Amino acid sequence: MRNKFLPYGRQSIDDDDILEVDKVLKSDWLTTGPKVSEFEEKFCKYIGCKYGVVVNSGTSALDIAVASLGLKKSSEIITTPFTFMATSNCILYNGLKPVFADIKPDTYNINPDEIKKKITSKTKAIIYVDYAGQPCDIDEIREIAKEKDLYLIEDAAHACGAEYKGKKVGNFADLTEFSFHPVKHITTGEGGMVTTDNEKLYEKLKLLRNHGIDKDATTRFGKDASYAYDMKMLGRNYRITDFQCALGRSQLKKLDKFIKRRSEIVKIYDEEFENIDEITIPYAKTNIKHAWHIYTILLNEKINRDKFFNSMKTKNIGVNVHYIPIYKFSYYKEKFNFNDNDFPVTEDVFSRIITLPLFQGMKDEDAYDVINAVKDTINEFS
Ligand SMILES: Cc1ncc(COP(=O)(O)O)c(C=O)c1O
């Protein structure tokens, strides 16, 4: 058994990253300086999109993405229940109503056919999440949006560097959100980005990040700057610091290498698990490039997931469950009275799924520790 606990996810920070952060800490700009726009520019260049607005978390990115659409208060937004709560909390922050559509049994991504069933005259947008780093059925979702005149927001918190039909995620929806939390592919400690090709939305996103103020720091605080500024709309303070952006810029250089390493570990897992009857390995479509944020397996009915979870933890393996469906949380239940039976696929997947450790800093030996722990735990059940 492993002596040291292996977490399910972890950042990789090297000396180059530390050097870049150090330089900024010794510079004149700690926040809202040149590293912010440099990170935005380099990120957009990597994605191949026009505009990026970097903020202090993926959650903030989602919030301003929704806010930038300026939807009427009674509007509904359709999303998946099988995600982190930030995906639907951003709908609530903006006084709108989340409507959940069930997921697909193979990818666990939102099911376009279920989206169609949930559309009403109040539906104004869809937020789709690329679960685990696998892009959704984007063509089908775009087709629905076009036909019904809906906005699209892609929650790509898991999918930084992923591709759909040869093109990087970040180019398909009206707005795409990324997260730079330490368990994600690249990190800024906390941080997030919204990308868009729409100039009007971009201008609004910048206002929303900084109180709705019409001037940025470079024009407000210089020697010749006037004190005057206007507040154009109700914004937030979601600014991110320059030293975080220096870290993000440095991390971005390694993103492709990180995804490659994650894919190598996935291959080791897949080969070891594919012939075990009790396990279904994750399904990856052929027309995408998976970013592999997390690796999840489905256990069959002979294995109790919660007992499996506890047993893995006693073996020092940091398993997790992604996700408790959002409609199960007491806040959502009390507010919206959702019925679990309306989401049969989510219910089934949630009851059997477990996340195994996956991050770029894992060695092959770590992967084999996980594999042995999984096999031993399955044997405990037979
Ligand atoms: C699918 C999804 N959306 C949004 C977020 C929010 O990102 P952040 O933690 O950077 O606020 C997360 C974070 O885990 C996530 O998994």
Overview of the structural elements:
The chain has 382 residues and is an alpha/beta fold. The chain has two domains: 15-252, Aspartate Aminotransferase, domain 2 (3-Layer(aba) Sandwich); 255-381, Alpha-Beta Complex (Aspartate Aminotransferase, domain 1), CATH 3.90.1150.10. The protein is 40% helix and 14% strand. The protein contains 14 helices and 13 strands. The strands form three sheets. It has a seven-stranded mixed sheet with strand order 1-9-8-5-4-2-3, with helices on both faces. It has a three-stranded antiparallel sheet with strand order 7-6-11, with no helix packed on it. Strands 10-12-13 form a three-stranded antiparallel sheet. α1 packs antiparallel against α9 (242-252) and α2 (34-47) runs parallel beside α9. It is globular. Residues 57-59, 83-84, 86-87, 129, 155, 157-158, 179, 181, 192 line the site of pyridoxal-5'-phosphate.
Taking pLDDT < 50 over at least 5 consecutive residues as the criterion, the unreliable ranges are none
What oligomeric state do the depicted chains represent? single chain
* Structural class determined from secondary elements: alpha/beta
What is the H-and-E element order? HHEHEHEHEHEEEEEHHHHEEEHHHEH
CATH architecture of the largest domain: 3-Layer(aba) Sandwich
How far apart, in Å, are the first and last alpha carbons?
Answer: 20 Å
